[in-house]
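Please describe our next protein:
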Amino acid sequence: MKNFIRVSLLLLFFCIQKQRCHAQAATFEISYIGTSEEAETAIGYAADIWSQYLISDIPVKISVHFQLLTPGLLGITFPNGIMNFSGAEVSDIWYPTALANAMAGTELNPGYADIEIYLNSTMTWYFGTDGLVPAGKYDLVTVAMHEMGHGLGIIGLANKTGSEGSFGTITADLFAPLTTSFPWPDLDTLPSIFDTYMEDEGGSNLITYTNPSADLGAAFTSNNIWYNSPTSVIANDGSRPKIYAPATYALGSSCTHLDEVTYPPGNENELMTPNGTTGSAHQYPGPIVLGILSDIGWEVTEPVYVEGNNFISQLEINPNPASRNVSINVPPGHSVYKIEVFDINGRVMHTSKVNEIIDLYTIDTGNLLPGTYFVKIFTGDQSIQTKFLKL
């Protein structure tokens, strides 16, 4: 296992997503330093995957450096950030500029990147985009997606020095000689959106702790931090997702990833855990991450998780697990025009156009390998996702 490290410069606070009138999938403008053509193809492919899930009228600007890093480190990400902008839903909280621009509908940081990514050029990389990763190699698409995920908002401002934990005390010198192309802000002991949804085991929000304090330091190393944003909880079958908070604090890894043990390799939410794995790919954000991004302010194209949504509550897929065929029971009165099946890496395995109102649709799964698959159902005004297990 190798470690991803991500650092936070900027993020945001508790926000219920406003309805914004964007119609454009997010686009990415990437500047490359030290990369090969095959690496650029893989990194661009990772950005294309993210663009399928996020809506923004403002391009996300990324600078990618391919160079020697600390041994064992796959990558490190520095998001640019801003607070108290027109359109911010909460004051005095850091937002990543990629998100802030999307929320504001205008570029708030002209001339500067939104995300600065460093990738370790000495690692044994697989540059293909097909997810068929040879043993002993790391999938660059997966790692690039992971790093972009941090720049888009899956990142915190937690820090620990000695026994004392804090929010918003991270400084640029902690990462020398690495630098950012944008000015590093004075974080002023303020948390990020990712931080503000974190709770201890008893349900107390961590940003209500004295900052800084030994109590925060103990919480950061308790192995008992949970994420309580509405959509991520729904995506996690009604339970709070668990955050990585090991007994030994590691800046950039602790408190800014999903828990490694809870979401191990092969789990649909694996992408944003701290450790990379050779010989495998995971080219899909995962429902928990998409839920988090939705809750911090992104317009997310899928999945649409809405509590009390009658269509979701009546949607059934049988049998589950399935060995051959699965049948989807569609609630009466809903017109379905397209059905897709995709695997945990986001690859579309089946697409059907439906030209009539139906209440039962059967999918032949005989050609699918055993594993978890997702069914996305498009109605006239929304898309709904559910999942099944192929035996």
Notes: The chain has two domains: 2-300, 310-390. The first helix runs from residue 37 to 51.
